[in-house]
Amino acid sequence: MTLDVSTLLVVLAVMSQMAALSLVTNWFQRWPDRHVVMWALALQVGAASCVLLLLRGQIPDFLSIGIANAGTLAALGITWNGARAFNGRSTRWWPVVAFPAIWMIAMEVPAIGDSLAHRIALGSLLSLILSLMLAWEIWAKGKDHLVWRMPFACVPALHAVFLVFRFIAALTLDLPPDLLDGGPFIGLGILEPILVMFAATIIGLRLSDERLKNILKRAALTDGLTGLLNHGAFMDLARERVERARDQNELITLLLFDLDRFKQLNDRYGHAAGDEALKFFSTIVQRCVSEADFVGRVGGEEFAALLIGCGAERGRQVAERIRAEFAGDPIRHAGHRITVTVSVGVMTVCGQRADFESLMVAADEALYAAKRGGRDLVFQAAS
């Protein structure tokens, strides 16, 4: 099968342009996503580089060889920055400048600039480094567990493997003096980026969509002020977890919290001070419980924590620690140091006795016993 180089370059340029337009359309629908516009820019630069390569012999070699290949390297650097933006990391523009600069300087060396084999070898080596950087950024630097992250990282990783073979082949095979003279090796070297670009675009969009869906799902489950589970989400997840604890004969403890005299706090210092108190309390609770536990804001100034595998004594210790830390560290607002306290009700059950509604009622009664006892107290219901 003959792989016409000019035709492949046209296909690569057109597909890159179409992919760029697709990403731009996607970006308009959710404009804060910087990574999308960066990937679109990378594809646009790649498409322009293909056009310059296609014009070999009709425009100066400085443009069709030097700038064209430098543009391809810059596109990879921009793609890497897009991956950093996707991971919430700051951009680093040195690869976008350094790798094309190395290429342009190397073109001034006759042994490289006048040899197609050496140019392909150098371009493969520089692209290999950038591709490995991209694969590492996508896979190793991500802080989430998105299903499409690994397939997306595999695209530049497989491209890097291909570049190793292309580097070796460029230095061992007999190549034509000019790129457009074609040959199976040259054609395959252009066909592979077409497939890589197509796969990266499709998988990249799927990855972006997956994260957007996760963000929307999380937003529907969490309280906007504190970042904890909202009332509905906590009740549903806690009820399900209590049922599982009953089946597995696990200890489970429920802590109910109510910030003391919260209305007076809002009336005296304003609702902004109240919001600060709520946020500060949520950070203390999250710090004192484990990742396996559920914590939610179940009312205006009411919170709940479901502690998994936690007995009565340990549950009371956690509640006392939260109460003491909150009371002992006044919040700072508008120049004021405001001491806020919390009352806590604690209830522990085990195995077949675990029933979510009964657990809630008992913990709620314990909470109001703490309120009646003078506030800033932990009251533990009898198990």
From TrEMBL:
It is an enzyme of class 2 (transferase). The keyword Transmembrane helix applies. Residues 250-383 form the GGDEF domain. Keywords: Membrane, Transmembrane, Transmembrane helix. This is diguanylate cyclase. It catalyses: 2 GTP = 3',3'-c-di-GMP + 2 diphosphate. The keyword Transmembrane applies. Its EC number is 2.7.7.65. It holds the Pfam family GGDEF. InterPro entries: Diguanylate_Cyclase, GGDEF_dom, Nucleotide_cyclase, Rev_trsase/Diguanyl_cyclase. The chain crosses the membrane at residues 6-24, 36-56, 62-81, 93-113, 119-140, 152-173, 185-208.
